[in-house]
Input
Amino acid sequence: MSLALTDSEPQTADNTVPVIRMRGISRSFGDAPVLRDVDLDVQPGEYVAIVGPSGSGKSTLLNVLGCLDRPTTGTYELDGVETTTLGERGRAAVRGGLLGFVFQSFHLLSHLSIEDNVAMSESYRHRQPGTQRSTRRERAIAELERVGLGHRIGYKPRLLSGGERQRVAIARALMSKPALLLCDEPTGNLDRANTAAVLDLFDELRASDLITIMVITHDGSVAERADRVIGIADGMVSDRPRETS
Amino acid sequence: MRWLPFRRRDAADRRRTVLRGSRMGLNEMIDAAVNGMFAKPVRSALTTLGTVLGIGSLVVTLGIAKTAGAQIVERFDALAATTVTVEPAQQGGGGGGGRGNRIVLPWDVEQRLLPLNGVVAAGAFGDANTGSGRISTNAINDPTDRAQLKLRVVGASAGLFAAIKTEPVAGRFFDGGHDTRADRVAVIGQGIAEQLGIRDMSRRPVIFIGEEAFTVIGIMGQPQRESALVNAIIVPGGTAAARFGLAGPTKVVIDTEVGAARLIADQAPLALRPAEPSALRATSPPEPQSTRDDVSNDVNGIFVVLGLVSLIVGAIGIMNVTLVTVMERTGEIGLRRALGARRRHIAAQFLSESTTLGLTGGIAGATVGIIVIIAVSAARQWTPVLDLRLAALAPVGGAITGLVAGLYPAWRAASMEPVDALRSGM
Output
């Protein structure tokens, strides 16, 4: 097992371990650099929006953050775990144990009920011996009730609205009690009312579970509600000042 | 920051989880396989059709071959298992047409053998030496007459016809009276009758063996035993002794009850020659099991090849459909990888799906095969014979077919990078 915690956990002044600590992260495809020397710290419970034009490197940054892709150089500690030295097994464990993903197109399996979609995220995690399938299902139902879909138990995804599907996807991401929720255009397919509902849900999750949320978005209303807005252009990352109304 | 204690506890839990690595249990694998199979039930059913046909063909061919083989052997056995022949132990020990050989077999075999429990019929015969005498239907010796034949003439006891299981197709067979009186009567085979142009027994046709005239009293059908006798002219033993100097029979044929052949073979030499039973050699039927196995193996060999070809076609079908499924479910593969699945988990999922498809096809194929065997057997009034091991192994064969067929698609699925798979969408 190549997983290891960092020797000395860097802490902030208020004694918290950063959820994300990136240093000198670069990612190139062939000779073309997409991310350049990215340094990034994100604190627990922060809500960070990543904005930038198409092709600026937002998705590549999200893939590296989600351990779906390896950086070419640099170090990336996620919740105190150095991820760049991990093998395939360790990276899979990090994805399953520390991360939650919410995608623009929901990525729900149409042939499964919504509670089975949510419970599926537990399939690859280590559980206590004797953990029953029914326990997983009960937890999945609890997460669905938490996102306001208790009345839709047993439904297939195709019977739900776009906003409800995205809430199912969020419930699925919450099953692993992630340290970091990575959202790729989570409101891209939603109307204004559903967008507001999803953003309200993010606020509730931050308040109740202190989950760190990072959102890639082109939607100004999504970025507006973030604690921090990070701009990315030509692979370079910089904090953007919040617009004050 | 009043939430910190909870936050730290959660973080510790998460790290412990990560340190343990990701895993996939058997339940999850079975769930994924069954869910994958029922995601597109019609396609899954059509996919299993190849395996159903392959396994079904194998079961049907092996079962029908075994059933038919048993049927063939059963019919063969029924005759072979009830036949005992007795001959002199040494060649030249029979009548031999009165050439001075030692006579070891008597003519009165019916009296000696019928009292034995298990003997149904018995008869004896020996070849008569007619010299250069030809057979014809007129007394004039005309070398150009195409109806003049050189044929085998046999002297026989009256019980021979029953022993060799033949029936008269015209007229009748001779009896003990003809034998005792040495009447010049003959029974000829059907083929000889046609050659000699003899059809109507009411006109009491006559044939000449050399210069001796014999009245044909019957035409014999094809005997089930000693089939060569259909091409012989059979005269009573007493007649053959008197006219052609046949000193005694050279062979005794015994028809026994089923299961009595071995016993009769032991007893017959003593009954026929009490003073010197060792001068005779009784032959009992071969072991029927080996004959059955030989026939079954010959038939099986052909059909097993056909069944295997069907199975290979079924496997290719599963492989193709699984490969298409992998391509269609690229987004799902990406999602599962994002949720913590390792390459081996993805491979295991698709392998378990293809194996489940194969297993289902195997069970359905075995069921269909058994039904077909029973239906065919019922239609043909055969006794269905099926090796139970075959019925049990057929689903295993289907599962192995599915497993092998899923290897390449599973490897393709496991090779996908999560980023690429997610990009393809769902």
